[in-house]
Amino acid sequence: MLVILIIVIALVAIIIVLVMLFNSIETPEKQLQSAAENLALAGEAADLAAEKFDKLKESLDELDKKYDAMEGLVQGTKEWDEAVEDVNNSVLDLITKYPELASLVTKENGVLKLDVDS
Question: Closest Cα to residue 97, out of 39, 55, 65, 68?
């Protein structure tokens, strides 16, 4: 009787191992589903990167407009000082949002500039 019980336990253990092994094998359907999920995630990441790039480009275009507006101002005037403060705050906001831009910051006549073309 004990031998039969041991055999039954051994058979149940073998069946459990086989079921676990079968469940761990990825079928082509599971692989395809996993690939589809990964593709969807990659698409979302690409969309997010494109959106961030567009926002950065828009911010840099706005900064360029501020630099252009400064060209007609006389250094040392109130308007110049206000424009410098505005530009410098914009640059600081950008490097806060995009820390990797910090290495591109230069300063000329008190004006922070981003050398993004280098």
Answer: 55
> Which residues 6+ apart lie within 8 Å of 102 measured at CB?
95
How far is the C-alpha of 64 from the C-alpha of 106, rounded, in Å? 15
Q: What is the value of pTM for the model shown?
A: 0.65
Q: What is the mean pLDDT of each run of 10 residues along the chain (118 residues)?
A: 68 80 75 86 90 91 94 93 96 93 92 83
For residue 91, give both structure tokens.
Answer: 């640059």
- What are the backbone dihedrals phi and psi of residue 25, each rounded to the nearest 5 degrees, phi first? -75, 130
What is the amino acid identity at position 14? I
Integer Cα distance of 84 and 98 in angstroms: 21
Tokens of 86: 């505005």
Q: Are strands 105-108 and 111-114 parallel, antiparallel or unpaired?
A: antiparallel
